[in-house]
Amino acid sequence: MIDGDVDGFTLADVDRMIGHDVDIISGAYPLKDKPLVICAGAFVPGQPGLVGSRYGRDLLRGKQCVDWVGAGFLLIRREALERMDYPWFREVMVDFGEGEQDTSTEDIGFCVQAQRAGIEVWCDFDVRLNHRK
Which of the following CATH numbers is that of domain 6-128: 3.40.50.300, 3.30.70.250, 3.30.70.270, 3.90.550.10? Predict the structure, then answer.
């Protein structure tokens, strides 16, 4: 999947992601309103909300397992979708720990559903992309 507002990738980036041989992986692109924060992150106990700043644009390198990614530049194996409940992209309730819960976006909902199906979600922080406003 490639959103129309994500650019800066090459065919080599796509080949690199395929080469990781994982079910779900995203390239690293920034949030539109926070250009130094990658659209990937972790659910942090005691901090309601989605904490993307934990993965700053220049902090991590290579392939990392994460809790969620945006779907702007996302590679998904068909077999992963076959293991997940349909519809794949929908809002879900996310438990952030310590009694904190909130409704997610459909991108994060997809990642939560994948994890519930036993599928890891990855981000390649070396595949650097742009996210236009």
Answer: 3.90.550.10
